[in-house]
């Protein structure tokens, strides 16, 4: 059975855009695109757009919004999307969509959706729409593209709920004091100096973010598989019979 929650990874690896609806597509940025946009700003946007209630539990509670009652979609259309206009999101959505200026509308069934009027090249007025289904399609691809998973933590009790909020506040305050560091730089530096990686410090920038992340994980898997095999065949190392087959298969799926 095909899991509809898993995007076509070959399409992502190739770097092709994914069409959400007639006007909204998700583009796959290269390392160069992210570098020029600003890495910290880029990842802040991605994390924000993909956030759910538990990710912002302290901020939501401070605003009087129960973090464990608001739906992912409502959090997106009522708060998160309002931080981003066309200039900020064009790296992934192109130069038409303006999340910040979209209007909150309802259809005849009472379902909430976002709408934005645009003027086409022919001078016609068209409406870009972003409904709940579109939203979940967007975050599904953004998470897959950046190797993110939805935070499924649940506060099972009042004390647990309080602990979540207090921990989130302390983590936020601690992050404010930490110096800003690049996430990509150590990965890029490691890869261009690794055997088996075919890019150098100039050509690596043409790689899209999904393909690059895949290479990081693949070379690590190849290295670990080789170490296990060398250790096992040496006669003095690990017992290969006790090692899972997927750990030895460097061409297997990546976690």
Integer tally of domains:
2
Give the CA-CA distance, first to last residue.
19 Å
Query: Which structural class matches the secondary elements?
Result: mainly alpha
Number of strands: 5
The biggest sheet amounts to: 3 strands, antiparallel
> What does the average pLDDT come to?
89
Radius of gyration: 22 Å
Task: Report the portion of residues in β strands.
Answer: 5-15%
Order of helices and strands: HEEHHHHHEEEHHHHH
Strand order across the biggest sheet?
3-4-5
**Percentage of helical residues?**
40-55%
Coarse morphology: globular
Q: What oligomeric state do these chains adopt?
A: single chain
Count of helices? 11
Helix and strand topology:
Layout: H1 9-14, E1 18-19, E2 25-26, H2 31-37, H3 39-49, H4 57-62, H5 72-78, H6 86-93, E3 103-106, E4 112-119, E5 125-130, H7 132-145, H8 158-177, H9 184-192, H10 209-234, H11 245-248
Antiparallel strand pairs: 1-2, 3-4, 4-5
């Amino acid at each position: 059975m095909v899991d509809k929650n898993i995007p076509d990874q070959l399409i992502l690896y190739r770097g092709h855009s994914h069409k959400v609806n007639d006007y909204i597509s998700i583009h796959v940025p290269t390392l160069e695109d992210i570098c020029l946009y600003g890495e910290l700003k880029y990842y802040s946007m991605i994390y924000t757009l993909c956030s759910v209630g538990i990710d912002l539990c302290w901020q939501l509670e401070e605003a009087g919004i129960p973090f464990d009652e608001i739906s992912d979609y409502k959090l997106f259309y009522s708060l998160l999307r309002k931080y981003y206009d066309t200039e900020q999101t064009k790296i992934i959505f192109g130069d038409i969509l303006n999340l910040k200026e979209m209007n909150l509308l309802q259809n005849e069934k009472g379902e909430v959706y976002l709408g934005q009027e645009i003027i086409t090249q022919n001078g016609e007025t068209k409406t870009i729409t972003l409904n709940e289904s579109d939203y979940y399609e967007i975050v599904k691809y953004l998470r897959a593209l950046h190797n993110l998973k939805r935070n499924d933590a649940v506060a099972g009790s009042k004390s647990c709920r309080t602990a979540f909020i207090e921990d989130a506040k302390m983590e936020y305050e601690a992050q404010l004091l930490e110096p800003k560091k690049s996430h990509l730089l150590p990965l890029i530096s490691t890869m261009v100096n690794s055997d088996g990686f075919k890019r150098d410090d100039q050509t690596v920038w043409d790689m899209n973010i999904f393909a690059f992340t895949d290479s990081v994980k693949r070379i690590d898997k190849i290295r670990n598989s080789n170490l296990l095999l060398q250790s096992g065949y040496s006669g003095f190392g690990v017992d290969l019979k006790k090692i899972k087959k997927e750990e030895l298969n460097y061409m297997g799926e990546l976690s």
